[in-house]
Amino acid sequence: MNDTVTYMLAVRGLCCDRAESAVRRILEDLPGVHRAHVSAAAGRAVVDADPVVVTAPVLTAALAASGYPSRLESL
């Protein structure tokens, strides 16, 4: 069984509920992501994922490709 890691990402462009939903869908559609909690108010996403399947660069690349630049805040 693989462990779950929690990634905290600072996400630019989170301005409303629609952006929150879009970012959550982008992240949760990635293989290995178990759950994503996105907050426009905080400007961040907290992602629980299988570190063997998905890494922080994969998460940030998927968001950047969709118009939401992000960076890893903590692991």
UniProtKB/TrEMBL annotation:
InterPro entries reported for this sequence: HMA_dom, HMA_dom_sf
A Pfam family recorded for this sequence: HMA
Gene3D superfamilies xrefs: 3.30.70.100
Residue ranges annotated for the HMA domain, each copy included: 5-71
CDD domains: HMA (cd00371)
SUPFAM superfamilies registered for this protein in UniProt: HMA, heavy metal-associated domain
Superkingdom of origin organism: Bacteria
PROSITE patterns: HMA_2
Protein name in the entry: Heavy metal transporter
